[in-house]
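tool=predict chain=A
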Amino acid sequence: MGALKHYYLKRKSRSSAVNSEAFKHDPEVIMPPLFPAVDTIWPKSDVLNMDFRVVPPQSKLLTGLLRWGLLIVLSVLLYFTGAALRANNQNLKDSILLKGETATNNLQNAASSLIEFDLANAQKNFRLAERNFNATLKSFALLGQGNLLLAGLPFNYSELEQGQILMSSGRHLATAGIKMTQALEPLATYGDSIKGGDKELADISADIVKIIQDSSKLIDGVVKETSIANNLLADISIAGLSANHAEKITDAKTKAAAFYQLAEMIDVMSDRLPAAIGFNNPKYYLILNQNPNEARPTGGFLGSYVLVKLYKGKVEKFYVDDIHRIDGQNRNNDMELPTPLRAVTTYYGMRDANWEPNFATSVKTIQKLYEQAGGGTVDGMLAVNPEVVSDILTVVGNLSMPEYGLELTPNNLAMSVQKNIEVDNRGAYSPKQLLIDAAPVLINKLISSNQEELSLIGQKLIKRLTVKDILVYFSDPELERIANLLNWGGEIKKAGSSEDYLMISEANLGGNKSSASLSREVLHRATIASDGAVNDALKITFRHQGSSKFPDGTNKNYMRVYLPNGSRVEHISGYDEGTQIVTDTAFGKTVIGFWLTTEPGASSSVSLEYTLPFKLDIDKAGTDYKLIVQKQPGVYKNTVKHTVETGRDLTLDMNTESVSSKDVFAGTLLKDETLLTKVYKR
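tool=predict ok
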């Protein structure tokens, strides 16, 4: 008998879990040992006391049979174990999918309630989402990797790990939503408490600023949670995932990024707005009154302005002036006059300074001319069209102007003011005196408005910001960035390297107020070749529905068409005979400039054909063709039709190979639009 050998059964050390956020919070589930560690019960000398004897050699046949027998037994055991685990884990997988879907629905319901400012329902659904996301993550933890390998689930490692990250990001978004509703709740409560009250606007502003400051930690928490959610989603790669999973993860990334952007905007505004409305030092703003009946790139001809002083959230002073008066003090300024404007003036004045469709660029010109004429530096500007004032009058009531024999109403405001300026007082020293006298009456009505009226006015202003009847500029770079994120800043948008772009800018130069008489039809067709090359055809048609009677008349438009940078124009026709085509680059775009004249009762058209500077990389999974269309402020009668056509080897429907043409958009262009079309290889 040989020497005794002692063996000790020791519990296996805990295996590392999947490297995911879920396992940072939830314990790893491991199978308990079949027996306790033996060295804690028996003396070491008694553990597995095995006697190794020298045994005569067995036959090879017997040894082989024993080995095969053991293999068969082991296979049977693994089969039944795997079958049992498969059934158990399939139920667990189904449970995970159900909980995840429920949590996602909770999150979507909460977002919808938040948009409608139903804070109670939003918070309820955000809490349900958080609870269900947590439950889903615990279920993921129960799926130990060893069980998965034995069970053979159709739930591969990549999908498991990415599913955990997706649920974890959802949990952070739900937590952010809870904090968001908690931050907004005091504002909602305060708004309800003062409805119909007689608090002054300055007192309301001060109260709101204090509420915002008190909620700053919650808002910081919203930004932190949404940032974590976005970082988690950024780690997810859709490569190798099923089309269904890839689509859901892409959608989750888009929505989480939008939520983060919203949280960041609220954070910046809560930090910067108190100073912007004068709670630290007085702030000065110019309100620029535009007339879209005489189209200009940012909305209309600049006829007058209001200088407003804000202090402690209150309009402390305001001054109304005719732009022609201040321009008369600055005829010898050093600003170079754009060539097309030389057709109507000999010097650059504020009245023409909104020449660039990118509002911030025009603001810089306006500011410089204003300072040279004796004005001071301002903290921001607002460009406003008459429709904004008409909306306000529907809430605060008509403006009585007995000295002019006028009652200005929402319906007659634009027509009455234009007639007074262009006909009744034409040639007078101050033809816009009516505007100068009406502005204080309107501002006093605004200042004396109660909370309910202010709320209604706020809703109408938001709508006007959306359709670009109000453009906003702040000298504070952070507030200016937020204004552009909200699409309130009149910014020419950046387009990606493989994205199409279109903006048509009109400038009525010497055509009186004829822009109001124009109806516009824009036809845009993109043809995508089999190799991904894109050729665009654009046709712009104006129909003059007015008369030759002043202040209407012949419409003389200087047009600029903004296209993706590097676009190559193949053909252009229809512009005014005897004038030149100007090709330029501005704001990262190729710009085509030309003159187009339309007589009353007639129509005129310009056609362009051009090749885009990129090719689409098209595959069977589908490629996005994106067209960004930007609306010119102050242009209303403007129908657009955007059609996509494909080459012989492409289709616009993954399920139907024969779809080679599609009308993507057809209707009135009310706001900026991003138009997406999916293109597939056949």
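The chain has a mean pLDDT of 82. The longest strand covers residues 603-615.
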